[in-house]
């Protein structure tokens, strides 16, 4: 038998004071094997750098995605001591990165959502720099604090349309080549040639410039960018084009730009701690507090027709006639 009236019926509309949510999916099943033995240390660099670089209008969600007991307890300890961590989701089995992220995305209202791997070190001012790109480019739907010289190759049809018909696409000098070098070291691969460390492709609109394309190990998206994502559950825990299908392509299909900041404001750490990481973390902790959140303008998405035009031009200028097009833009070396 039910007595009285549920109080929530009188206050049925949800309202939030936060403007930016950060989602960390953590998968550290054990700490003994070579691959995971230092994962706890790397995660501590990640969460502590995040807590020391976000503004007060941020909320943090952590998914315990099949973690061992020691890491699980560490995450709950962080939640108890940090009010910005307002959500911790626990699952005994590894749901996969995408399914874990989407369990949070679909249940929160913040206009901006940053998704990040648990091996990222956030640098001071990353959030303000990312939000500034959304302010200056209302058409942006996905912005990373880590630029990539090869980011233009993937899911940038809407960005291409914008660059050719509303703004301008050009090459400019890489602002922080050390950031690119650190990233390729962290993944253990020589991703970039000399020219990639010197020049990257940017789009400008007379107000600001941003790098064309970005990676997805850390990126901020408008909430609307997820609306074009597949509705079915992702079948892959990792790989299988899951990031592309559920993050990168939906943003492009929704008619939004895929961009990155000119400077490098986060590091991908990999799974092997280095002495510089502890030093950098101490610098982050001692840095000035993050500035207030920016007011993000309403989304301005392109139409499906404009996306298709951009898709055609991307294939034409970034693939079939890349050498000629990039030569026209001033880069004559193979890129």
UniProtKB/TrEMBL annotation:
Transferase among keywords:
yes
Pfam families membership: Glycos_transf_2
Q: Does the keyword Metal-binding apply?
A: no
Could you say which residues form the signal peptide? none
Q: Which CDD domains match?
A: Glyco_tranf_GTA_type (cd00761)
One of the entry's Gene Ontology molecular-function terms is:
transferase activity
Listed name of the protein:
Glycosyl transferase family 2
